[in-house]
Amino acid sequence: MWCVVSVTAILAFLQHGSAYTQERRYVEGSNINLGEALQFLKEYDREGSAMCFRVTSAQWNYSTNITETNRRRMLEEQVLSSKFRRLSWRRATSFTWTRLPDPIVRRQLHMLAIEGRSALPEERFEELQQLIAEMKDIYSRARVCPHIINSIGYGYRQGGNCDLVLDPDLTRILSHSRDYDEQLHVWRAWRDAVGPPMRSKYIRYVQLANHAARLNGFHDAGQQQRESYEDLDINAQLTELWATLAPLYRELHAYVRRRLVDRYGPERVRPDGPMPAHLLGNMWAQNWRNLADLVLPFPGKLTPDVTSEMLRQGYTPLRMFQMAEEFFTSMGLKPMPPEFWRYSMLEKPLDREVACRASAWDFCNHKDYRIKQCTSVTMEDLLTIHHEMAHIQYYLQYADQPLLFRDGANPGFHEAVGDVITLSVSNPRHLQRIGLLNNVTDDYESNMNFLLIMALEKVAYLPFAYIVDQWRWSLFAGDWNIDEMNARWWELRLRHQGVIPPIPRTENDFDPASKYHIPADMPYTRYFVSLVLQFQLHQVLCEATGHFGPLHTCNIYRSREAGRLLGEVLALGSSRSWPEVIRIMTRGRTDKLDARPLLEYFKPLSIWLSTQNRDESLVGWSTTGEDTALFARWSQDGGFTIVPSIILIATILTAVLSIA
What we know:
There is one protein chain. Helices cover 58% and strands 3% of the residues. It has 660 residues and is mainly alpha-helical. Helix 1 (2-21) crosses helix 9 (234-264) and helix 9 (234-264) packs across helix 26. The chain starts with a helix and ends with a helix.
């Protein structure tokens, strides 16, 4: 164990050494008057709630009725909100808050003091906000051309109306197409549309974000982001978690790669190499569920997709939402308030343009909570409804906390709560129990089908969720030159995810920008934390139900005991540190993130995958041959050449951590 911890610490230090060696110097003033601090926080709670209601209302109006007038009003409210946050930051940092005797006051002032980029001079602050807005605008306005066969039927070219958008057009093509060249065109066209126009803007964004962080007492913007986890050691925890989970991912990778070799041939997918990123059914190769038709081991067996049964029974979007509400009330949790049913957008309106991406909304007034979703009667949307309503349930449970504590215990908690509900809802036994699945058989083949589908979504996502902020934090920390940032992105994806670009990439490209969270300045580690935490929470809720048997067969529906525990955890919001919340959640067993419940959930699949992969020449992926040649071409084009010794060291460290 000593060796494992030491290697983890060394690796973390190599990645972010400066952040670990520099003691935090919090920005604070000279005021130590507790009464004044309490009065300020009381005013902030009242005024902040009112400001939150105004901004959220304006954002809702624009999202549910996209007009230039609504956009202008939303931007005006956001400007006012930014000014309010800057003023609040100045007031918070006027106190010597680390010396105040009240721990609740200290916690709230700490949250305000480390928030955002308010320490920047006004001109630089506005420049940063404008850069982010411009990058988001490039992303949202990007359009690409379709891919069609030319007039003589030879080869492919761009053509047609160049109005394809990411969602649903490009997403649908990558989900369903099995044409290698069409997938390649869509993959490349999207990155060409969003990457190069953002590159110089993003470089300036990094400079300003780092400047703001240093004014706030941080080494860089990455350290400022990690502060939201209240733990300087969080990156070491993440590294150790990923090392524990990587062997399961490699088994899944080897199995899926074999099926892609069978489909596309060894000349396009190397039997012992990384997989081309455009063949995995998703724009970022982060979710492989759309490959189910290629990889499902027992296609004759029932799979838990109840779309056709819902249509046969005449389900409507409203009925789907009512079913989701009943899931929560069956556990003794809260029903949706009247405002939810009055104001939510449950279906796509026909008379106006709307943003269809499903989302849950808290209007900060203790009563108005809504969901925005263009619902279709599908299994996928049924799961999404439960996920979004879990966010609403979280809002309801912590509604009585001060404004600053009305949030998840750490940035990954909200997503984990949403996903832990869908772990039960997607369970075949649950679907049978609510009358949507008939003739459920608890046989080996059906279990493997179910677990593989879940792994294509959950396990496949692990390395991508891990590397996005690893890349961003290294960029902020200056661990490598800014003119290497595209190559470093692909180095991480090769090392951890085992995917490569299907065509050579150079530093004229900016492929990280193809993922919205990069230009939108949205942290991503929360999704990796959520992946681990949801199974940890699922395990303790299943124990509360008295469940006996494999973890993947557990369903918490109608369990009042699970509902009591979940409600207790959610009601805390962010009023306690997240390790303390985990300690409460696990009844004192641990205060850390734990990968073992995820491994336990997928244990039957892991054994099956090991058997399926016994004849594979390599479980994992080689970084030699054609893949090395691809990186070499980067170097010739002015990109970054991977040094073999660096890859060797990283591979050895990963292997040591995995064995342990």
